[in-house]
């Protein structure tokens, strides 16, 4: 299941490589990696690590950013580009990565 999700996201990533900034929707992982790191470990101390975080928690936070319940300008913008299905796939992807 996790491998399948990573595969789907990998295809989207490959197709959209280079176009991430213009079209964040088609390459979510590359867009997220700018702040949260390519492996879900954020290089900036003001940005949370995502790798190994609970899948349900990640999903709930993304949905809260999306609705505005959890206020954050950049994350609201990112989350609003995505469907709940895409958010679910990202939550599974980051939850499966090894924590620091
Ligand atoms: C412009 C930088 C930036 C980008 C791009 C970005 N994030 Fe974030 N993200 C942040 C910051 C900063 C926070 C902390 C927000 C806060 O202080 O409430 C955050 C918080 C989160 C959280 C909550 C983590 C927690 O521990 O509560 C999740 C989940 C998350 N981001 C997922 C993503 C995903 C998935 C993407 C790609 C679709 C993404 N982010 C793109 C900067 C970014």
Protein architecture, described:
The protein is mostly helical and 100 residues long. It has a single domain, classed as Cytochrome Bc1 Complex, Chain D, domain 2, CATH 1.10.760.10. Helices cover 58% and strands 0% of the residues. The relative contact order is 0.18. About 11% of the residues have low confidence. Bound molecules: heme C. Heme C binds next to helix 2, helix 3 and helix 4.
Secondary structure layout plus pairing:
Elements: H1 2-16, H2 28-36, H3 55-67, H4 73-80, H5 84-96
Helix pairs in contact: 1-5, 3-4, 3-5
Bound molecules: heme C.
Heme C is lined by residues 28, 31-32, 34-36, 46-48, 50, 58, 61-62, 72, 74-75, 78, 90.
Outline:
With 100 residues, the chain is mainly alpha-helical. It is 58% helix and 0% strand. It is built from 5 helices and no strands.
């Amino acid at each position: 299941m996790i491998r399948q999700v990573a595969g789907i996201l990998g295809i989207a990533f490959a197709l959209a490589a280079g176009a991430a900034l213009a079209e964040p929707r088609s390459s979510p992982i590359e867009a997220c990696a700018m702040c949260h790191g390519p492996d879900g470990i954020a290089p900036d101390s003001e940005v949370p690590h995502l790798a190994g975080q609970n899948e349900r928690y990640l999903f709930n936070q993304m949905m809260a950013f999306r609705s505005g319940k959890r206020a954050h300008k950049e994350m609201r913008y990112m989350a609003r580009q995505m469907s709940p299905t895409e958010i679910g796939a990202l939550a599974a992807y980051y939850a499966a990565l090894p924590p620091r």
